[in-house]
From TrEMBL:
Protein name: MFS transporter
Membrane topology category: Multi-pass membrane protein
Pfam families xrefs: MFS_1
Localization per Swiss-Prot or TrEMBL: Cell membrane
Domain spans labelled Major facilitator superfamily (MFS) profile: 18-427
Transmembrane segments: 30-49, 55-78, 90-108, 154-178, 190-209, 244-266, 278-298, 310-328, 334-351, 372-396, 402-423
Principal localisation: membrane
Length: 433
């Protein structure tokens, strides 16, 4: 390997630093992203006060969805940087952009102060957030997989969804504390801004840690031998288009499930089920905490039994249990709601905990960052970012609170087919070309 250390020969100290940097960076990115979803009702009152509650909420989620539309573009850009210049460079800049945009959201005047410029400025910052986030998940996954020993790549890559959930968990805790201690007027006036202000210091810490790491052994090898592809995107579409299509399909359950179950759920419980707002955050917080534990178990299961078996099991469970689960959410019983959310989160981890290693292993080193970023962000742009909006619209048009469950089932069916058509990737050597 031209003098570069193989992953199996990397020191445990280096691996700990890699895991820490990946966890903290991804945590910061998704805390920033999640706060918007958890405070959607308050943000609606600040930026769309002249709309009726449901229309305003749909407009708020429309901004959430629009920011996802830039993610495929971000996937191309960050993928190119990650595969041409290095994984570390892409990850260091992506966290800086995300933190800056999130901090700026805290400073935007309300609609009452500057009129339509308020939601337009919010939209601009959301677009910057979407662009920066598009390089984070893929880059952190590639970084971890390329540093991990072959027999533990699933466990190492599970750090990425675990850190994502930890960011959501922290956002949920912050939202629960704020709504429990501030009245609605205080939340509208200034309380909603507090979580966004945390972005600057957390982002700077994450960037500092990442700049202190070396790039991965796999990337350093192809860089030293001058084997990096000059146009990773072109190479991806010419040589790996089938894997790209299958990867997009495999991501679908993650895209819809993650944002419906872990981001949109507090809004669903408070607006559609009638659960008290603070209790809805508490239920989601507990579900997120158990989700993080299940994620690492799933990573180990995928290392032992293979990626395909675990991913297909997740899809089958969602096909069978999703609609009954949403039936139970409608009972309004907090204990039942809590149990259902934990169950849905556990089912989701079978997909989310396996997907990062599965996608990273699908593509060779020369286009790994690009292949992961493009497939992951295309599916998330079309189906993930729109999930809260589609769920709200489906309920409004159908009159049924079960509509999000049927939407989840459709996503699970497509993911099942895509994974079934894919090759097993666990324990096999990472391809360079």
């Amino acid at each position: 390997m031209s003098g570069q250390p193989r992953p199996d020969h990397v020191s445990s100290g280096t691996r700990r630093r890699v895991v820490t940097a990946s966890f903290i960076g991804n945590f910061v990115e998704w805390f920033d992203y999640a706060v918007y979803g958890y405070l959607a009702v308050t943000i609606t009152a600040v930026f769309f006060p002249e709309s009726d509650p449901q229309t305003g909420l749909m407009l708020t989620f429309a901004l959430f969805a629009i920011s996802f539309l830039v993610r495929p573009l971000g996937g191309f850009v960050w993928g190119h940087i990650g595969d041409r210049i290095g994984r570390r460079t892409a990850l260091s800049w992506s966290i800086l952009l995300m933190s800056l945009a999130t901090f700026c959201i805290a400073l935007i005047p309300s609609y009452a102060a500057i009129g339509v410029w308020a939601p337009l400025t919010l939209l601009a910052m959301r677009v910057v957030q979407g662009f920066s986030a598009s390089g984070e998940y893929a880059g952190a996954s590639a970084f971890l997989v390329e540093y991990a020993p072959a027999h533990r790549r699933g466990l190492f890559a599970a750090v990425v969804p675990a850190s994502t959930a930890a960011g959501l968990l922290f956002g949920s805790l912050i939202a629960a504390v704020l709504t429990a201690n501030l009245d609605s007027q205080q939340m509208t006036d200034w309380g909603w801004r507090l979580p966004f202000l945390l972005a600057a210091p957390m982002g700077l810490i994450g960037r500092y840690i990442r700049t202190k790491l070396e790039d991965t052994p796999a990337f350093r090898e192809i860089a030293q031998e001058d084997e990096a592809v000059k146009a990773p995107v072109g190479d991806l579409f010419r040589k790996h288009w089938r894997d790209l299509l299958l990867a997009c399909g495999a991501v679908l359950l993650n895209a819809v499930g993650f944002y419906v179950i872990l981001s949109y759920m507090p809004t669903y419980l408070s607006q559609e089920v009638g659960l008290e707002t603070t209790l809805s955050y508490v239920a989601t917080t507990v579900a997120l905490a158990t989700y993080i534990g299940f994620i690492f178990l799933t990573g180990m299961l995928s290392d032992r039994y293979g990626r395909r078996k675990v991913l297909m099991s997740a899809s089958i469970l969602f096909l069978v249990l999703t609609v009954p689960a949403f039936h139970l959410l409608g009972t309004g019983s907090f204990a039942v709601i809590l149990l259902v959310q934990v169950l849905l989160g556990a089912m989701l981890t079978l997909n989310d905990g396996t997907l990062p290693s599965f996608l990273a292993e699908m593509f060779p080193t020369k286009v790994r960052y690009t292949g992961f970023a493009v497939s992951f962000n295309l599916s998330n742009a079309i189906f993930g970012g729109t999930a809260p909006l589609v769920a709200t619209w489906l309920i409004a048009t159908s009159g049924s609170n079960l509509a999000p469950g049927w939407y989840l089932m459709g996503a699970a069916a497509i993911s099942l087919v895509a994974v079934a058509l894919s090759a097993e990737t666990s324990r096999k050597p990472l391809r360079h070309a």
